[in-house]
Design brief:
376 residues; alpha/beta; 4-stranded antiparallel sheet; 11 strands; 40% helix; EMBRYO DEFECTIVE 3147; Acyl_Trfase/lysoPLipase
Length: 376
Amino acid sequence: MASSIALPSISLSKSAFADSDSFRSSVCLGFRNDIRRVSRLNFEKSRVFMSVAVGSEAAVVDDALFQDYKPSTAFLFPGQGAQTVGMGLEAQKVPAAAELYKRANDILGFDLLDTCINGPKEKLDSTVLSQPAIYVTSLAAVEVLRARDGGQQIIDSVDVTCGLSLGEYTALAFAGAFSFEDGLKLVKLRGEAMQDAADAAQSAMVSIIGLDSAKVQALCDAANEDVDEANKVQIANFLCTGNYAVSGGLKGIEAVEAKAKSFKARMTVRLAVAGAFHTGFMEPAVSRLEGALASTVISKPRIPVISNVDAEPHADPETIKKILARQVTSPVQWETTVKTLLSRGLTKSYELGPGKVIAGIVKRMDKGAAIENIGA
């Protein structure tokens, strides 16, 4: 019999549904103010209805169902780079949270909790381990919150959710789009596919600190003039003004670092990641994700889940699958996402999982924003 964690109005049961980062390692990659990449995915901006199979019944889902969402309380989930040795220890005090690590072991085939608590750091930092570790620990944080006085009421009040890169999978699991187990299987494969893609080419990432997006783009353009096509770079992650990540070929990244001071960047920080995430360098991972997503049961989320690719909520399961497959090659529009939430009236948000980078980003964008960290 499948065990489950109860969510607000649904269960994270097997039968029901199933890269935040520091300046050192913000793998929450990707974003551009223009959304030209979205057109490549053939996402219809009009109110298109699609028919999908859910169990034995056919469900017609309007992908634009959540377009007019009005957020009040949000759950925000971190991405790769948030991991830290010792995470998961607090979760062991809450039976429902501790149970998630046990269920994860059956899928992963190793003791995830031991790696989370004891490391070593180099092992936990690897893409193939950090992604499932953050996914499980973030959902364990939901159970830690539920166990405290008033926690269930907070969970019930959440009307929008999103996550930074990897965190989008956590958000979808929380929103009931897929089961805890199915989400973990996807995250496991995602980490493996991204690592393999990174191993296939010399690439890297670097954070540019102290410049606005236009100047970072100009810096990328200047670097690209000095390298061949295989080493081109691009803005891969807009966290917030003054902190953007650039991804690309190793020579291109080196050119960015060499030219940064002339563009008056305060500093550059080479990121401790496997390669150029959220760029075309990750293209080999896409087909593997498409295959896994095709065989995964995905349902309409019960609340809006904001996509990293276009900063929009999607309701149609088939569209969600397409977005998740392309997310690893598309810049993550986190800055736009947070700005949109705040402009639409968000009054309270919670960062659930390891680290406090998301809270820092939100505060930099709005000093008066109310956000609380829930760790595990």
